Amino acid sequence: MASKTKQQIVVLGAGVIGLTTALKIQSEIGKQYDVVLIGEVLPTDPKNIQYTKLEVDTFKVLWDLSAPGSDAEGYLLRIHEEEYFADDSIPIKPFENMPDVCFLSRYPFYRALTVNVGVPFVLQFKRLQQSQLPTGVRSGISFTTVTIDTPLYLNYLLNQFLVKGGRVLRGTAQHINQVIESGVYGFPGGAALFGGASSIQVLVTGSSSESKGPGNSKEEERKSQGPAAVVNCTGIGARFLGGVEDKKLYPLRGQTIIVRAPWVRSGKTLYKDRTGAFTYIIPRRSGEVIVGGTRAPNDWYAQPRPETTEDILKRGFELCPELAPPEIRSQHEPTIDDVRSLIVAEGCGLRPNREGGIRLEVEWTEGVGGRGRVPVIHNYGHGGTGFQASWASADIALRLLEESLAQI
Prior knowledge:
Radius of gyration: 23 Å
Number of strands: 16
Order of helices and strands: EHEHEEEHEHEHHEEEEEEHHHEEEH
Largest sheet: 9 strands, mixed
Helix content: 25-40%
Number of helices: 10
Distance between the termini: 26 Å
Strand content: 25-35%
Low-confidence stretches: 51-55, 94-123, 196-215
Mean pLDDT: 82
Shape: elongated
Structural class: alpha/beta
């Protein structure tokens, strides 16, 4: 049971950034603070468009989690990946900071590579020969990487947060001041808090006798037990969250299909230009393969478009005809129709892109609801790199949080 003397730290947003950040905070300073994660949508919910998916630090964490025998091994898969480029313009990728890599200086984004022995996967990083490239491709690279079964991994993060003593509240914040002023006490009427002390849950639902009596009014408790800090990980929601309303945020809509093809155990990505991945094949440990994709700025449409699904399937099959079952390929030249029956789902999501990049900084508030100085740590705007950047962003957010708490 959490101590009543602990002050709250509230993390807003239960996507991969919010979950990872909450877990990091709980792991490092959870003994001193009551860490509460507030989310409108949780990993246990049915699939929702709000759940979508650069640092070396993040990759190292995921690499370790994917090790044989790890408790997260079932959600991660180490694979061989090949990436192809249709022109000489290579997109900025995490490799520019990866250790153990020496890459050709003709690629400007890779010139900053350094050598630092110790990460085995990078030893397999190499440039593909022309004979290894598909038709119409000018250059390519290969390396070993990790893929994530994202729905399972999000539930893993949530479970780890709860196991370590964190608590979760389902709720929607209309304004950041709602949280700054009173934390979980600003979410009345049937909100469900689980994973910790029942005394807080009773106060949230407004039915506790503890909040009554002389010198212990509900209003006094609300003010005295407001959060020490708020961490804003609301993603695209930060565009609409009152008091934040970041108009630099915009959706970069992505659409994919999921194919049941457990025989595919290597990834492929084709880049047409500098805007990012054009077509990609991402196998999961479960045997599902993600085939994508699209990058449509300022497109808010929340359902898969049939014509886009057909286009993705066509491009995916051209890039990876191995999507067709082996028994089919052994009998005749496979066609796209051999893959169509293997589609198990279509998906789309709104990547939280932000003009100017990620917002990862401290904003100080003062006098909200009669309270003193309360820091808000913003950690959002990761676009399509949320999973890749999650642990590194969490590290930085924790450092900013600790520095801010030391100033109160």
